What we know:
Elements: E1 7-12, E2 15-19, E3 25-30, E4 35-38, H1 47-54, E5 59-62, H2 68-71, E6 79-83, H3 101-115, E7 135-139, E8 144-146, E9 151-156, E10 165-169, E11 174-178, E12 184-186, H4 193-208, E13 216-219, H5 227-241, E14 248-252, E15 255-262, E16 265-268, H6 272-275
Parallel strand pairs: 4-5, 6-7, 11-13, 12-16
Antiparallel strand pairs: 1-2, 2-3, 3-4, 8-9, 9-10, 10-11, 14-15, 15-16
Helix pairs in contact: 4-5
Amino acid sequence: MEQVTYHVQEIANGIWAIDEFSMVYCYVLEGSKSAAVLDAGTGVSDLKSVVDSLVSKPYTVLATHAHMDHVGGIGQFHELHIHSADIPCFEFPEQMNPVSTFKRRQICERAIAAYGDALPFDPDNLEPVDLSQITCLPFEDGAVFDLGGRTLEAIHIPGHTKGSCCFLVREDRVLFAGDNFGLALILPLGGSDRERIQAWLEGAEKLSRRSGEFDLICAGHYCPLERSWFTDMLSCARKAAAGELAPQLWEADEMRGPMYHDGSVGIAIDPENVRNRDFRRIRQLRRY
């Protein structure tokens, strides 16, 4: 069986989406002075070579948040810019650390569901990440990364992780949403359901007030993201925070269980929704 490779698509002039074997989208943006890599993927294959084939300028590696499919590949780079609230994640023990081979193998189940034996890597033989060789550079809400004629502004929306961010590129009217918006939003942090949802909603409302500044939404698992999902997620969170919604049994791609559901999206609070994930449930797994 012929092996698959990274799927690369130029979605705007000087902006590329890199699909890492249906596990996550990474993005490369080029300005007149420099470039940026937005999320480093899982690190199952040679992402750096793909980036180097797209841009010859020096580039900065940024992360939307510290989960294994977004930072697992940082071992291929020397520096990572990430919100300060997510830097402690790299000190977590093996079964929680986002760059551990344990966590990275978990997300590989998504790639296996899509491609099986056609994958160019073996999840059981992932290269470990040596964090001692990587410099994590913290940024805060509102940080701006200037590439020359193209800027990325960080918008902090805690909830999916403590440091989760979106990045707005106003020049191109594009929002890079990370995992803050999608078919299902996972809010695993502590507190009651309404406290978790309210914490996310406070950050998301900031972004909502600026929704006239972007037309295209590119997310960690959807490129593009349906605009209706963006508005439905805000509506769902508002109703849940106000006590107008109760969890109900719902299925969203790989998750099945009690979720706050409104419109076309759901918010997952119950940890069982994560523990019983089955990527074979995804109706539209990307295959190239």
